[in-house]
Amino acid sequence: MIQRCFQCDARYPLDEILYTCASCDGVLEIAVEAECLNRANLTGAGVWRYAPFLAVDAGDAVSLAEGDTGLHRCERLGKDLGIAELYVKNEGENPTGSFKDRGMTVGVTKAIQLGASAVACASTGNTSASMAAYGARAGLRTIVVLPGGKVAMGKVAQAVVHGAEIIQVEGNFDVAMKLVRELSLDSGEVYLLNSINPFRLEGQKTLAFEVCESLGRAPDAVVLPMGNAGNISAIWKGFREFKSAGFSQSLPRMFGAQAERAAPIVEHLGGTNESCRVEHPETVATAIRIGAPVNWTKAVTAVRDSGGRAGVVSDEEILRAQRDLARMEGRFVEPASAAPIAYLRKFGIEADTVVCVCTGHGLKDPDAILSSAPKLTQCQPTLGSIREALRL
Ligand code: F0G
Hints:
This protein is of the alpha/beta class and about 400 residues long. The protein has helices spanning about 75-80, 100-115, 125-140, 155-160, 175-185, 200-205, 205-215, 230-245, 265-270, 295-305, 315-330, 335-345, 365-370, 385-390; strands at about 1-5, 10, 30, 70-75, 85-90, 120, 140-145, 165-170, 190, 220-225, 255-260, 310-315, 355-360. Helix 6 crosses helix 8 (about 230-245) and helix 11 (about 315-330) crosses helix 12 (about 335-345).
């Protein structure tokens, strides 16, 4: 295995620390020769079951038992949306409550193997929560740069409890991302764990393997939210590698949902935003409040090559989808994670088997729900008063 530039195909050894290509500044990916892999070598559970596909030695893995999240059939919601077989891959079931744990177990293990003493990230919340937990487990210094005032409090609490050093900056995620990249390049000891790090994305691709193994085949379509666009890129890579290895027979179409006022990739695919940037992104789904996604070239390729599409959903549509999933299926996900459901309601998809990737747990961001909830009913502590209120 080797690191390869996604843009110009320049090659670098696995132990060279660089986050973009030294010659063209393109994003990097790990080249995996999946054709040589043997199914008998997939053993155990979770992310590390797929160690033969990962470019990081599993021997001393920093793990919190991540992966193996449920793939839940959603009959009622599926019927409501006109989809024959709808599934939710519920990434909120990971140790810190989001899909980031799949990437962090691999990224933090890599950091240890490289001899780093500190790890760092910019974050809309979940990356920092996950990095703080895995960094703590590994005994590393963890540095988190957050966009001031726009991160859900549940996620900040996670970074605090795990002992991260938290810096808030004035400005949005894109500003924080730029600064933390500079910090990592400046200091050889600080290892960057945003999704520009190709080893982290290797962990995230294992979601595709799990879906194929659970269904016994690849689904027809996969829908997910796009922010920095690492996850859609990683999952598409996973589906392709599983097929190359001969472990699945087909590929899904990849569908990406973005929030209305934070949709550079949708605009780019529609031909109206060549640089793939939005200056002042805004949305209730703060996890995907991102205007300059570092992995946009990979995401655009995933959507185009798979024959998928991308579309925008409004905050209102996102919150409705969050409620639908909670009330019809009993699953509470955070607003960004409901964007795929909102996408399905708005645009529909011609496909029988559809998997929505619900990226994070709802308890991380209860504010979005409570701010629009009706006031709680107040009663005297008597049966009569309660019956009256309930009209029972
Ligand atoms: N859903 C949730 C819950 C997220 O936290 C994120 C990204 C995404 C979707 C988008 O994934 O960036 O790979 O396209 N959160 C990052 C963070 C940016 O800092 O926690 P993506």
